[in-house]
Backbone:
């Protein structure tokens, strides 16, 4: 209780508070990580929020808006996987596309933008590993590093989950821009699994895209909705607003059945190219393996070339990365054997 002892205690308290207030991002991340694994989540969130508010950690750890203003050569590309209507295989395609990029040595982050209805974690087999999501990052409750989940099977692949319960109104252009800026500094490709249509999550995902892959089925209604998305991206993206290079848009056709096309019950690849005016980056054949992979939490592309849909996704990734002359497979009916013709 001596005056000297009291002075020492006071000085130690001041130093401790200063360390919390002025700690670097790396130190804050270390403290947050240890808290994450030693405390219940609701306790951690409360403590971590106090760190973020006292040190402006949210701005620091989400990176800076200028990151998305940098030249394409100095940051990773943001690729939006989108569609005009639901149920066309968009999330299935995002999972396989991101996995394929990582398998080819590209450090890849895939982000689920479907706030309130996340599914990407199931397609990648990560649903049990989600602790923090995109909304936690945007609100400064955790760092990007904490929220990203590393894929155990594919080196270089990381996922950022959407919130399962939060309101879509939490998304803001500034917040999403900072988040994607931080990701694009760390990754070669940032793949955005956008919700269908033009609701909030879709608008935010498409706004910052460098590339957009429009997913559609070979039917007229799906193509009509896809055409609306093409126009929306051309007019409402950040690149469109700034008058810079346009978003590179390509078409991914899913659930393609050559036999139905031959019977004129479905649109052909050339029909869809003519309707939408986009180059085709891939054609994915109808396959039962897609449902099986979803149920087992494995991307279709990981099933190997023996499965036509997996081979088609692999071709799609190669074309996206520059092999534009790679021929389209699985677009013509298989020859009917003698026994099948004879016995039906």
Residues:
């Amino acid at each position: 209780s001596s005056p000297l002892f009291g002075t020492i205690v006071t000085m130690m308290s001041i130093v401790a508070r200063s360390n919390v207030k002025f700690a670097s991002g790396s130190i804050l991340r270390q403290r947050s990580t240890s808290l994450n694994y030693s405390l219940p989540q609701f306790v951690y969130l409360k403590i971590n929020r106090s760190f973020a508010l006292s040190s402006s950690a949210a701005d620091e750890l989400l990176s800076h808006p200028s990151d998305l203003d940098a030249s394409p050569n100095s940051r990773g590309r943001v690729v939006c996987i989108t569609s005009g209507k639901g149920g066309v295989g968009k999330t299935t395609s995002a999972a396989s596309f991101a996995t394929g990029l990582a398998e080819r040595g590209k450090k890849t982050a895939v982000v689920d933008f479907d706030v309130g209805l996340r599914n990407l974690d199931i397609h990648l087999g990560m649903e049990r590993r989600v602790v923090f999501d995109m909304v936690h990052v945007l609100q400064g409750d955790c760092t990007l590093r904490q929220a990203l989940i590393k894929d155990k099977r594919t080196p270089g692949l990381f996922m950022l989950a959407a919130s399962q319960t939060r309101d879509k109104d939490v998304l803001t252009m500034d917040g999403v821009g900072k988040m994607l800026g931080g990701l694009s500094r760390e990754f070669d490709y940032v793949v955005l699994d956008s919700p269908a249509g033009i609701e909030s999550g879709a608008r935010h995902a498409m706004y910052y895209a460098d590339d957009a892959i429009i997913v559609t089925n070979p039917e007229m209604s799906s193509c009509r909705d896809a055409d609306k998305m093409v126009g929306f991206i051309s007019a409402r993206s950040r690149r469109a607003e700034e008058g810079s290079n346009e978003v590179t848009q390509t078409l991914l056709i899913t659930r393609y059945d050559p036999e139905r096309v031959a019977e004129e019950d479905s649109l052909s690849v050339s029909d869809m190219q003519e309707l939408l005016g986009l180059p085709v980056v891939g054609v994915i054949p109808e396959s039962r393996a897609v449902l099986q992979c979803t149920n087992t939490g494995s991307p279709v592309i990981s099933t190997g070339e023996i499965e036509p849909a997996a081979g088609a996704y692999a071709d799609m990734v190669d074309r996206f990365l520059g092999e534009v002359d790679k021929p389209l497979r699985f677009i013509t009916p298989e020859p009917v054997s003698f026994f099948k013709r004879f016995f039906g």
User: Anything to note?
Assistant: The first helix runs from residue 3 to 22.
